[in-house]
Amino acid sequence: MTQFSLPDYTLTSDQVPLVPSLSLPEVQRQQLKSEIKAQLKALDAALVAHYYVAGDIQELAEETGGCVSDSLEMARFGRDHPAQTLIVSGVRFMGETAKILSPEKQVFMPTLNAECSLDLGCPPEAFAEFIDQHADRTVVVYANTSARVKALADWVVTSSCALEIITALDRAGEKILWAPDQHLGGYIQNQTKADMLLWSGACVVHEEFKTQALEDMRRVYPDAGVLVHPESPAGVIELADAVGSTSAIINAARELPNKEFIVATDRGIFHKLRQLNPDKVFIEAPTAGDGATCRSCAHCPWMAMNELKCLNRVLGDAIYRAQNEIHIDSSIAERARLPLDRMLGFKA
Ligand code: 13P
Ligand code: SF4
């Protein structure tokens, strides 16, 4: 394996906003939900949401003919849906991906401030230099990147398809330059033994899961299955019964025989896990323990910005909506589309 030393692109805690914890009274929630349904209809818009956003928003997406899914299926759904207006509830790279794949559609988000630490930790200029230094490598970037970074890549992958795509590239004899998530990259490198040079970004949420505390928790719940998103540190992944994307975690919870699960990913996923498995118990993997910083405590601060009030505002207030529309320079979008199309067209 090639070793290369890069600056540390892990975000410091002051770069990560505090998780908002707005909890509205039931009457107000229901009122907002019925307004949002009417507004979606009036705008003929489809709501595309990620499993990490608030349960109310996930329900709204499903009840109005939109979708709730992992980042790969969000991209596919937005591209294939006939609506000319998409409301993407997730983080910015998800809105950008929808726009790149459907330049003719208008794509809005409840707030464009919903970032992702992996995207922020991979500045396009520095990444372009990194690529120039390793021109012999095939550039594979995680979907959690800006349009400008995607425009520098040969392939885009999500955690649903990364293993298969890297396996195919490795079999074809290609050496990989991977960015930005060092943990997902390390996991794939370990599984495939591919020659991968890794950027040093990290997800501020998954990085907080603690190996020792997880081992201690397993002693308390010896029958629990452990489900882990591969953005987590290697020690946490090693303890997993199933490792994979958000949809892979949801599938594993249904298929494995365990009645209890310890889950190492954003806690927004518990809404769908509990909805689909009312007879099973889901426990948050620990973020406390040695070296704990727990700035986000297993809840992505940017996903949490997707509040009902913002969603209501982006639909009902034309000025706010215009401020939260995704725009991407057409030359960047056209170039970024190539690796995205490659990913969506890939067959193992
Ligand atoms: P998935 O592609 O597994 O939905 O993950 C997206 C993400 O941002 C995980 O933190
Ligand atoms: Fe990005 Fe992590 Fe939030 Fe996912 S959970 S959007 S990887 S910061």
The portion of residues forming beta strands comes to: 5-15%
According to CATH, the fold-level topology of the largest domain is: Rossmann fold
Number of helical runs? 16
CATH superfamily of the largest domain: NadA-like
Bound molecules: 1,3-dihydroxyacetonephosphate, iron/sulfur cluster
Question: What is the averaged pLDDT score?
Answer: 94
Q: Which regions are unreliable across 5 or more consecutive residues at pLDDT < 50?
A: none
Order of strands in the sheet with the most strands?
A: 2-1-3-4
- Order of secondary-structure elements: HEHEHEHEHHEHEHEHEHEHEHEHEHHH
State the total count of DSSP E strands. 12
**Domain count:** 3
Please describe what this structure looks like.
- Helix content is 43%, strand content 14%.
- The protein has 3 domains: 23-114 and 302-333, 3-Layer(aba) Sandwich (Rossmann fold), CATH 3.40.50.10800; 118-202 and 336-345, Rossmann fold (3-Layer(aba) Sandwich); 206-284, NadA-like (Rossmann fold, 3-Layer(aba) Sandwich).
- Helix 1 (26-43) runs parallel beside helix 14, helix 3 (71-80) packs parallel to helix 4 (92-101) and helix 4 (92-101) crosses helix 16.
- The model has no long low-confidence stretch (mean pLDDT 94).
- It is of the alpha/beta class and 348 residues long.
- The longest helix has 18 residues, at 26-43.
- The strands form 3 sheets. It has a 4-stranded parallel β-sheet with strand order 2-1-3-4, with helices on both faces. Strands 6-5-7-8 form a 4-stranded parallel β-sheet. The protein has a 4-stranded parallel β-sheet with strand order 10-9-11-12, with helices on one face.
- The protein contains 16 helices and 12 strands.
- Iron/sulfur cluster (SF4) is lined by residues 91, 116-118, 144, 203-205, 231, 266, 300, 302-303.
